[in-house]
Amino acid sequence: LRAETLWTIAGQLRRLSGNDRAKAINAMADTATDEIKSQLSQVWMFGDLSLVHLRHGETDAAWKAWQRGLNIAEHIQNAWGRTRALGKLAATLIKLDKSR
């Protein structure tokens, strides 16, 4: 929850005042993301963040968040967890693809 909140704050700062103010929050969000023990939870968070960016018309940021989730999903060793993560990413991908 902490990481997702920080990513959301960084996105709002970027929208309101540009990238400079958001950089510090991005670093905090990266650290908080690394503290999430479940890779599935990390993937789920980036899938959700991708959709938030999409709702704000930020397609580049949406794709970047989706790709970050995919990169994490590639390293999930548990087959069931990886399947759930890829299912979330597939559902997100459908929405991203429709935005093109």
For this entry, give a set of tags.
100 residues; mainly alpha; 2 domains; 84% helix
Description of the structure:
The chain has 100 residues and is an all-alpha fold. The protein folds into two domains: 1-35, no CATH class; 37-100. It is 84% helix and 0% strand. The protein contains five helices and no strands. The chain has helices at 2-17, 19-34, 39-55, 59-73, 79-98. Helix 3 (39-55) packs antiparallel against helix 4, helix 3 (39-55) runs parallel beside helix 5 and helix 4 (59-73) runs antiparallel to helix 5 (79-98). The chain is flat, with a radius of gyration of 13 Å. 29% of the residues are buried.
Concise overview:
This protein has 100 residues and is mostly helical. It has helices spanning 2-17, 19-34, 39-55, 59-73, 79-98. Helix 1 (2-17) packs antiparallel against helix 2 (19-34) and helix 3 (39-55) packs antiparallel against helix 4 (59-73).
Give the fraction of residues assigned to helices. Answer: over 70%
Q: H/E series, N to C?
A: HHHHH
- Ends distance: 30 Å
Strand content: under 5%
Secondary-structure-based class equals: mainly alpha
Give the arrangement of secondary structure elements:
Blueprint: H1 2-17, H2 19-34, H3 39-55, H4 59-73, H5 79-98
